[in-house]
Design brief:
Layout: E1 4-5, H1 11-15, E2 19-25, H2 30-45, E3 49-55, H3 60-65, E4 73-78, E5 81-87, H4 92-104, H5 107-126
Parallel strand pairs: 1-3, 2-3
Antiparallel strand pairs: 2-4, 4-5
């Protein structure tokens, strides 16, 4: 599967279902250029996941929503829940391992924990 260009416009629809890997990158970034072919190769082996790329120069607001301060940054969603985020270029075996671990997640447990975290944040914000 080829990678998808993610923008603020298609973001919510893209991450709502299944497994989605997002690569935040920029044209001027050397590590991003080295990671790009790895991301592409892994995408071709896993048709059961969406591989999206966010150009941080063109999509500054989207990168800011994620708090991206270093690139490349990888963010992984499963069923609308962010389950992994890490800056830095990864070697291909590490990217494959992350993808396999995401596939193995007990999503009932993840949803329960995520909802508890959201409630804690909301309570803390209320004050």
């Amino acid at each position: 599967m080829a990678t998808l260009e993610m923008t603020d416009t298609n973001h919510d629809e893209t991450v709502k279902d299944g497994i989605v890997l997002i690569d935040f990158w920029a044209e001027w970034c050397g590590p991003c250029k080295r990671f790009a072919p790895i991301f592409e190769r892994v995408s071709e082996k896993h048709a059961d996941a969406v591989f999206a790329k966010v150009d941080t120069e063109a999509e500054q607001e989207l990168a800011a929503k994620y708090g991206v301060t270093a690139i490349p940054t990888l963010v992984v969603y499963r069923d609308g829940i962010p389950v992994f985020a890490q800056p830095g270029a990864l070697p291909e075996p590490a990217l494959e391992e992350i993808l396999e671990k995401v596939k193995e997640l007990d999503m009932d447990d993840v949803r329960t924990r995520y909802e508890a975290q959201v409630k804690e944040r909301e309570a803390a914000n209320r004050g």
